[in-house]
């Protein structure tokens, strides 16, 4: 269950990424989303459940229908996931540059 | 502040590209990657072994002040072209991560400027994403460990 709530695990699946793209522009019902895929309805429901559990999607009742919409805050978390990694290498390379500048001066 | 280092990680791919321009000639950036004393200075870990030759091997290690090993990695060096490129394998010990393949390219921009391109290939997309998330995880990251030491120090 823990795995399922992991956003990175959630976006590891291409169908789920496609679902996110679909609802990015407009909120949609499960039926409308399923109609965009060749896969069976229960499969799409399962994907929606996983995306909802990890909070990438939010359910919103509208009359008798339930609409799924994108949670932009959670999406931002994914967009930012390269950042710490990038920062780490940046720090390291900045260090390299200063170490080698020093070396250059001495030699 | 904008970071000088760029990391390209396309969705659904098992590779990563890290690019960085240096205000240094290619020869010095290459040296920084192939001379043990210099590697130690900027990577912040001990270099237990580094044979800068084809099929040579390397071992890096970081211990905390109590002498506990926080990080240990090893691999072999292949296809070394001085001041141009080399390939190395990278295995992080005791993590369960599969070995990764790393291509280093040292590109000349001018006499005083150069660009390093690191192309890293992982065993799978999942492995790559796991590695990317690692800076979030505690303890395992050597640069962060070092940073902590400096702050605490």
UniProtKB/TrEMBL annotation, chain A:
Domain HTH arsR-type, chain residue ranges per copy: 1-90
Organism taxonomic ancestry: Bacteria, Pseudomonadati, Spirochaetota, Spirochaetia, Leptospirales
SUPFAM superfamilies: Winged helix' DNA-binding domain
Record-given protein name: ArsR family transcriptional regulator
Entry superkingdom: Bacteria
Keyword Transcription: yes
PANTHER family in the record: TRANSCRIPTIONAL REGULATOR, ARSR FAMILY, TRANSCRIPTIONAL REPRESSOR SDPR
Entry keywords, A to Z: DNA-binding, Transcription, Transcription regulation
GO molecular function: DNA binding; DNA-binding transcription factor activity
TrEMBL record, chain B:
Pfam families: AHSA1
InterPro entries referenced in this protein's UniProt entry, alphabetically: ASHA1/2-like_C (IPR013538), START-like_dom_sf (IPR023393)
Domain Activator of Hsp90 ATPase homologue 1/2-like C-terminal: 24-151
Gene3D superfamilies: 3.30.530.20
Superkingdom, taxonomy of origin: Bacteria
Family: Belongs to the AHA1 family.
Protein name (record): ATPase
Species, as recorded: Leptospira bandrabouensis
């Amino acid at each position: 269950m823990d795995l399922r709530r992991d956003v990175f695990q959630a976006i590891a699946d291409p169908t789920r990424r496609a679902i996110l793209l679909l609802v990015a522009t407009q909120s949609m019902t499960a039926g409308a989303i399923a109609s965009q895929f060749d896969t069976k309805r229960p499969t799409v429901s399962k994907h929606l459940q996983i995306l909802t559990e990890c909070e990438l999607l939010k359910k919103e009742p509208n009359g008798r229908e339930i609409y799924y919409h994108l949670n932009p805050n959670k999406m931002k978390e994914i967009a930012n996931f390269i950042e710490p990694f990038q920062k780490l290498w940046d720090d390291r390379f900045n260090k390299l540059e200063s170490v080698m500048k020093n070396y250059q001066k001495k030699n | 502040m904008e970071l000088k280092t760029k990391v390209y990680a396309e969705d659904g791919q098992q590779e990563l590209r890290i690019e960085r321009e240096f205000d240094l000639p290619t020869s010095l950036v290459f040296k920084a990657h192939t001379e043990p004393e210099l590697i130690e200075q900027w990577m912040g870990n001990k270099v237990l072994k580094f044979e800068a030759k084809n099929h040579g091997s390397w071992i890096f290690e970081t211990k905390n002040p109590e002498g506990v090993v926080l990080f240990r990695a090893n691999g072999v060096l292949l296809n070394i072209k001085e001041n141009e490129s080399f390939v190395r394998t990278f295995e992080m010990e005791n993590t369960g991560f599969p070995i990764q393949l790393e291509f280093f390219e040292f590109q000349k921009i001018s006499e005083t400027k150069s660009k390093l391109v690191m192309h890293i290939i992982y065993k799978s997309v999942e492995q790559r994403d796991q590695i990317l998330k690692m800076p979030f995880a505690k303890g395992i990251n050597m640069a962060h460990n070092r940073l902590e030491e400096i702050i605490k120090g």
